Amino acid sequence: MAAEKRLRIGVIGCGEIAYTATGPAIRQMLAAGPDLPRGVRDGRFCYLFDLFPTLCEWTGLAIPPTAEGRSLGVSRNTSAGGREALYLAYRELQRGVRTSRYKLIEYVVGGRRTRTPLFDLQRDPHEMHDRSADPESQETLVELRQTLAGLRDEWGDRESPWGRTFWEGYERPAL
């Protein structure tokens, strides 16, 4: 079953990877207005909830303190905003991190870490070749796991029931 879904509403490139294991689901947004540059494609990472504060900023409205997302920045400064990496989660089974070049997915099944695919998206955009066992990928694997742990803490994932279950199994010694 293919889970790749594409919502093609435009080209400003607000991308979010929605499914960790079954393929990318890139969401894009098209924005037009008198202060927005024409024909610009912007590939910064964001989550869907980042769109609300972005739209508030673009329209000159105050961003409510209850808004969970972060603005991508005003239209004249396309280098502001966005995220360096996306934190990916699916129930108590998967956690992952997506950067501009790599995607790492950690699986916990039956209360234990089971596999860790690593994809180099520049060399393998279709995620066909797991690089996690390659000796030349070990430094990248360590860095991405550190990024994953940092995002886990930033999001407070250990506080959710699914997150707590995942991280307990992830940290349990292998048999």
Q: What can be said about this structure in brief?
A:
By secondary structure, the chain is an alpha+beta fold. It has three helices and seven strands.
Give the end-to-end Cα distance, rounded to a whole number of Å.
32 Å
Alpha-beta classification: alpha+beta
Number of domains: 2
Determine and state the CATH class of the largest domain: Alpha Beta
Helix content: 10-25%
- Helical stretch tally: 3
Task: Report the β-strand fraction as a percent range.
Answer: 15-25%
Question: What oligomeric state do the depicted chains represent?
Answer: single chain
Per the principal axes of the C-alpha atoms, what is the gross shape?
flat
Cα Rg = 18 Å
Low-confidence stretches: 1-25
CATH topology of the largest domain: Arylsulfatase, C-terminal domain
CATH architecture of the largest domain: 2-Layer Sandwich
Mean pLDDT: 79
Order of helices and strands: EEHEEEEEHH
**Sheet having the most strands:** 5 strands, antiparallel
Description:
The protein has 175 residues and is α+β, with helices and mostly antiparallel strands. It folds into 2 domains: 1-83, no CATH class; 86-171, Arylsulfatase, C-terminal domain (2-Layer Sandwich), CATH 3.30.1120. Helix content is 22%, strand content 17%. It is flat and about 60 Å long.
Write the layout of secondary structure elements.
Blueprint: E1 7-8, E2 27-28, H1 51-59, E3 86-90, E4 94-98, E5 102-109, E6 112-115, E7 118-120, H2 138-155, H3 161-171
Keyword list:
single chain, 175 residues, alpha+beta, Arylsulfatase, C-terminal domain, 3 helices
